[in-house]
């Protein structure tokens, strides 16, 4: 027998709180597919940088298996701005944390596309 609706709702509410969904301002998706040179290293560097900068309640970093670009990786995208970055390693990952995630200024030298999330007013 599965969980009751009340238990399921309580479990989900707990996970939402733990994941800081209610306070999230930005979501970073980092490709960790084998085609990306650094695999999980870039994900870990950005995740750890977010934590060190005290941004954990405002920024969520998620590893994904593929973002579909498969060239000049690792690839990551920051939402809601929809800023796509290529060749994200080392100092570039650090700059994304300090410049984009902390200060709100996209890192132009590695950004190759921008597609912000749609406003509620759009059709």
Structural features:
Glutaredoxin, 5-stranded mixed sheet, 5 strands, single chain
Describe the 3D structure.
The chain is an alpha+beta fold. It has a single domain (24-114), classed as Glutaredoxin. Helices cover 33% and strands 19% of the residues. The protein has three helices and five strands. The chain has a five-stranded mixed sheet, covered by helices on one side. Strand 3 (76-79) and strand 4 form a beta hairpin.
What's the N-to-C terminus distance?
43 Å
CATH class: Alpha Beta
Number of helices: 3
| Strand-residue proportion | 15-25%
Mean pLDDT equals 89
Which word captures the global form?
globular
Largest beta-sheet characterization: 5 strands, mixed
* CATH architecture verdict: 3-Layer(aba) Sandwich
- Order of H and E elements: HEHEEEHE
- Taken together, the total number of domains comes to 1
User: And the CATH topology?
Assistant: Glutaredoxin
How many strand units?
Answer: 5
Order of adjacent strands in the largest pleated sheet: 2-1-3-4-5
- Estimated helix fraction: 25-40%
């Amino acid at each position: 027998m599965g969980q009751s609706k009340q238990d399921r709702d309580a479990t989900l509410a707990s996970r939402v709180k733990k994941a800081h969904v209610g306070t999230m301002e930005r979501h970073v998706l980092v490709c960790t597919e084998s085609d990306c040179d650094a695999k999980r290293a870039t994900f870990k560097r950005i995740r750890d940088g977010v934590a060190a900068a005290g941004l954990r309640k405002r920024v969520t970093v998620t590893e994904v298996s593929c973002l579909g670009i498969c060239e000049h990786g690792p690839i990551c995208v920051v939402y809601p701005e929809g800023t796509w970055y290529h060749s994200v390693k080392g100092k570039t990952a650090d700059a994304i944390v300090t410049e984009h995630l902390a200060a709100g200024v996209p890192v132009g030298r590695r950004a190759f596309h921008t597609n912000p999330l749609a406003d509620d007013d759009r059709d």
